Amino acid sequence: MKIRGAQIVCESLLKEGVDTIFGFPGGAVIRLYDTLPSYPQLRHILVRHEQGAAHAADGYARATGKVGVCFATSGPGATNLVTGIANAYMDSVPMVAITGQVARPFIGKDAFQEADITGITLPITKHNYLVMRAEDLAEVMAEAFYIAQTGHPGPVLVDIPRDVFDEEANFHYPDKIELPGFKPTLQGHPAQIKKAAQLINEAQRPLIIAGRGVIVSQAYAELRELAEKAQMPVVNTLLGLSSFPHNHILHLGMLGMHGTAYANLAVSHADVIVAIGMRFDDRATGRVSGFAPQARIVHIDIDPAEISKNVPATVPIVGDVKNVLQSLNPLVEAKAHSEWLRQIEEWRRQYPLDSDPGGEHLLPQYVISQIWEATKGEAIIVTGVGQHQMWTALHYRFHKPNSLISSGGLGTMGFELPAAIGAKVGCPQEAVWAICGDGGFQMTIQELAILTQEKLDVKMAIMNNSFLGMVRQWQELFYGKRYVATPLSGPDFVAIAHAYGIEGCKVTRREEVVPAIQQAKDCPGPFLIDFHVEPEECVFPMVPPGATLAEFIKEPKREAVARGWPRRSTP
Amino acid sequence: MATTKHTIVALVEDKPGVLNRVASMFRRRGFNIESLAVGHSEQAGVSRMTIVVDGATAVLDQVTKQLYKIVDVVKVSDFAESELVARELALIKVKATPSTRGEIIQIADIFRANIIDVAPDSLIIEVTGDTDKVDSLFRLLKGFGVRELSRTGRLAMARGPAGTLGVEAESRPSRGKGRKQEGGS
Questions:
Q1: Residue among B21, B61, B173 minimizing CB distance to A180
Q2: Interatomic CA distance for residues A426 and A400, integer angstroms
Q3: Are B68 and A308 within 8 A, CB to CB?
Q4: ipTM field
Q5: What top-level class would CATH report for the domain B85-155?
Q6: What is the pLDDT of residues A420-470, one digit of tens each?
Q7: Where are the beta strands (DSSP E) in chain B?
Q8: Whether residues A247 and A270 fall in one domain
Q9: Residues A68 and A44 in one domain
């Protein structure tokens, strides 16, 4: 029996186990939307801007490990997805974006709402398709889902002309995908694994850098086994946070530009580094020519193109992290490395992270550590990009696996709210907190409407410093304190929340922090807290651009802070 | 860092946009393409791209890996000069007067080039060979006044009996949308 292209899309989604779609309708996808009511198993969540759909699908995918799905119409609908797709591409998030296209006879004619979205998304998708026949749809959908979640995960876009949604074809869903050009390597090469084990066994100062690949591969137990057996300390990339428990003695927190001093010092002194599911991003390595000068590097990653792309690997191992670690761990000898660990403890004492500097000022570090206290570290934390993100990475002590969702590679401000919505939809039983910047929050603020419409219990904590804070910090440190285009005279976020039917409160003093967080927790629905934090607080430690990881700027003494930083009056 | 010229041969699925995918990857990652030739391979539905790249070894390693990441790219091989035979073809339109025509034809003969068009005041010369040979002929003809030059870019194949890509052509699976397929469900 023949069915319409639109039905083939929905049937394919069911075959892939999809239960949620984030989207926004329009002319080219009316038929697709018209078909949705016949598929009550597919929950459609209406966003207010297509960027929100892509970020929500991203948050959903990261929280659940499933493929996130979003819909948009042709032209502006599709181009509005672009930032969200690029974000998913950079952070290796499995996603299938389905866009409408103008009808086939109009393609290439600059028709109304036409945009060459396959051309536009070529460099930011793992693969994309323009489907010109309904009879190809099922196979394309199967391939799209397969490519999105197999190997190095990423987004795939499927562009469908509006008359292909109308066209009828038989529905046969392929149960096996055969792509001659797509054969990810999942098992590590035994000889390479042996070499890696040898290097680890000979090491005096070994160290693990664990990235998001550990989370994608769910290799938490294997990572922990390796670390404990060889007594190797573990540092995380930003997106690797929550792959290893923060309260573990071997955990050193995040490395990189705003990494902890002891993590960066450990990297700089290690003689063997086992880099697991990470890609040596420039924010993680600092000046790459001075990165880990004494270390030989074992690089485990599923993507061969990541090997020796930025930092040359002594022993590359291409494969799925979990598989590789399962083969590697038995070959690794139990060691103590007590001298190395003593040295690291010394650094930890010398440069401690201060989550509660005290004093009367309302400091974001304190707010974040209090959110950690209140949630017992059990919440899913979603952040945007900037200072609040770095403070969260440093001061929320992630111990629950996969509990941080953040925009790492692309650094997309405004990611937090829609991604938190996606995470909450995917994991309704979990507490979800969006930690937001007052700048980025306004980039996707319209998605507050979803919280009300879909009754989603997302808590929002805005670190409101009335600045585009991270840029301001660079201006303060490297551009002579010339605050060009960074001061914000923000809106009344609580009033905006109320306008959307959401509860909220404003916090200006330190003693209000704990009660406000408690109030948010007690509220049965979404809740927004507008924390008016110290405006000119900086994120420290900081590795200045162009410096090596060992050349970080330390946390300044608090007396200096009190002297130099006038409080701005808050409205 | 010293750079070397490498010839990369890629088998790609003959699908709409595949040339764009490959070219876009080179552009976005800042790899320099010296020449690029695309055409059918011995297999239906599979095109063969010959790409000459100038770059350090580490760069070439990345080129190969990044090519593999493109889903439509089936097989990639990277060759040093000594491992392959390579040819390109050029058409050269050169000014020729009654007094110079004889000399030009003589030069063409030395290069085993063919005269494929004769007009009262010009000749079109077809030459096949490696890059150096085409370059030399072009340099010699320049003195007579070259009006147009059209070159194909390099085509290459590994020496000896083995397939260039180290696989027997027949054993490679073939498939594809965008091409006609039987059944059509």
A1: B173
A2: 17
A3: no
A4: 0.90
A5: alpha beta
A6: 999 999 999 999 999 999 999 999 999 999 999 999 999 999 999 999 999
A7: 4-13, 33-40, 46-55, 73-79, 84-95, 114-119, 122-129, 146-151, 155-158
A8: yes
A9: yes
